[in-house]
């Protein structure tokens, strides 16, 4: 309703920030049946390059929502890096390596999806106040047609590293600000050699020429410190540092985008503060090395969406929403730690060379490579599923399984597209179907058979799994044993009491 120049909107969840993380969350909330309104200050998707890397786990999540076909066939790189040291990223799975998708395209894809599911996206709206009460939150934003007041049961800050929500509510955000920084720019009309993390006597230089002729350059002068910036750097500064480090002149080029990013490292002490939650860079601030920041945020959104939707709809089990903080804060802390190490390897001067040389010898060892690739890709994430449930595949994401369902080919990722839980039965246990029947409004029972060899990640003998909506295994039957009591306990833990969910 409208009151003069003030419009009041009532919804279940207010999402602040319509970048990739906020849009991913909006779609997940709609899949879970929650009404959602997104406030975004920009009037359209970003036109800047920004984050352009999607890792294997994120590609799996998009596959699980039926979104990959809309991306076409983006370029893929099987080689990444750890602190500038080459690292092979190929691991078992359908999407090995890293995939190059401009952030603007990712936003367009997620916006189309979220809107088609019924999410409301209010562009050109800048949040300037947010209050949280015992039973609701209220956000006030300035828009093109006046003030908009959004009243909701919960709010989620997805508004980036300079989060307005975080500034307004001032949650504890420990860590450190940037000490060193990289300057970067997308430049047309220059011709410089491609460089992949080339360490020169005076600094670090990176250059990559795209198919359209635009070159992205990144540069850091060893010993320089991060400036306290209120705006992006001028291209002249980038060109001057580039010449000082490489001896090459690029000032005659046409800058399309200029940016500076530092090695700041901060993480909220809690991702949930009552009815206000945080996701993506609003919850953790880190140097954007290897695309990990964007992927970490998108995975935050997928973990949170189904839990928050179940909470607002009613019937969510106790502690479900708090498990978002428990699970994702631990993952975020681990990522920030590895990014901090990489920042030192990249931006440190001559004193880091012995360590770089040692890692250069260790990383090609397969066990080391697999460990680091699993961390960077997100494929190694496992969540605790309760006492006595520490054996794989419990807690891990279920790898892609080629299946035959009702006589037709399918995959385990296809089963997740409705956004609900899945009880996948590879042995046709009628008693499992009966045990899960009271949760049929939240968990879909599917009898199937494997259409090929067992992939790595599904141990021999595992013949039934309960999947959360994010694709992680909450319960498994193995070695001919299928405990209905164990299944019911897992169903209660993650989906609530039978019959209590709203229709």
Automatic annotation (TrEMBL):
Its cofactor is FAD. Gene3D superfamilies: 3.30.70.2450, 3.40.30.120, FAD/NAD(P)-binding domain. This is Oxidoreductase. Keywords: FAD, Flavoprotein. InterPro entries: FAD-bd, FAD/NAD-bd_sf, RIFMO-like. One of its GO terms (molecular function) is FAD binding. It comes from Streptomyces caatingaensis. Residues 11-338 form the FAD-binding domain.
């Amino acid at each position: 309703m409208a009151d003069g120049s003030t419009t009041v909107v009532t919804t279940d969840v207010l999402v602040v920030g319509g970048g990739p993380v906020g849009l991913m969350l909006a779609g997940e909330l709609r899949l879970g049946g929650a009404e959602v309104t997104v406030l975004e200050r920009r009037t359209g998707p970003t036109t800047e390059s920004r984050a352009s890397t999607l890792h294997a786990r994120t590609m799996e999540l998009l596959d699980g929502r039926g979104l990959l076909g809309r991306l076409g066939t983006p370029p893929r790189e099987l080689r990444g890096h750890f602190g500038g040291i080459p690292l092979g990223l190929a691991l078992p799975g359908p999407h090995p390596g890293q995939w190059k998708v401009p952030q603007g395209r990712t936003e367009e894809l997620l916006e189309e999806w979220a809107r088609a599911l019924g999410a409301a996206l209010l562009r050109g709206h800048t949040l300037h106040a947010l209050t949280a009460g015992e039973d609701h939150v209220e956000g006030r934003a300035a828009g093109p047609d006046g003030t908009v007041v959004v009243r909701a049961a919960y709010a989620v800050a997805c508004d980036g590293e300079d989060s307005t929500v975080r500034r307004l509510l001032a949650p504890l955000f420990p860590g450190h600000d940037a000490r060193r920084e990289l300057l970067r720019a997308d430049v047309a009309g220059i011709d410089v050699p491609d460089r992949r993390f080339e360490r020169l006597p005076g600094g670090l230089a990176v250059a990559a020429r795209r198919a359209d002729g635009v070159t992205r350059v990144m540069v850091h002068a060893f010993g320089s410190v991060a400036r306290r910036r209120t705006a992006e750097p001028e291209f002249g500064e980038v060109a001057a540092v580039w010449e000082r480090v490489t001896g090459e002149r690029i000032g005659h080029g046409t800058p399309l985008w200029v940016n500076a990013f530092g090695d700041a490292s901060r993480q909220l002490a809690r991702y949930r503060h009552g009815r206000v939650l945080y996701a993506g860079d609003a919850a953790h601030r880190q140097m954007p090395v290897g695309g990990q920041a964007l992927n970490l945020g998108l995975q935050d959104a997928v973990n949170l969406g189904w839990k928050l939707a179940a909470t607002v709809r009613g019937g969510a089990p106790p502690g479900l929403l708090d498990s978002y903080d428990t699970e994702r804060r631990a993952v975020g802390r681990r990522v920030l730690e590895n990014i901090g190490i990489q920042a030192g390897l990249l931006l440190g001067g001559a004193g880091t060379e012995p360590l770089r040389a040692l890692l250069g010898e260790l990383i090609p060892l397969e066990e080391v490579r697999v460990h680091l690739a699993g961390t960077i890709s997100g494929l190694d994430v496992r969540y605790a599923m309760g006492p006595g449930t520490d054996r794989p595949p419990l807690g891990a994401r279920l790898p892609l399984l080629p299946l035959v369902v009702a006589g037709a080919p399918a995959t385990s990722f296809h089963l997740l597209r409705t956004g609900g839980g899945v009880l996948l039965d590879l042995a046709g246990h009628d008693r499992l179907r009966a045990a899960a029947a009271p949760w049929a409004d939240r968990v879909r029972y599917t009898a199937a058979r494997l259409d090929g060899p067992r992939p790595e990640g599904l141990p021999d003998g595992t013949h039934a799994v309960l999947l959360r909506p994010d694709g992680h295994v909450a319960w498994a039957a193995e070695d001919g044993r299928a405990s209905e009591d164990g299944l019911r306990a897992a169903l209660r833990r993650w989906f609530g009491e039978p019959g209590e969910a709203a229709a």
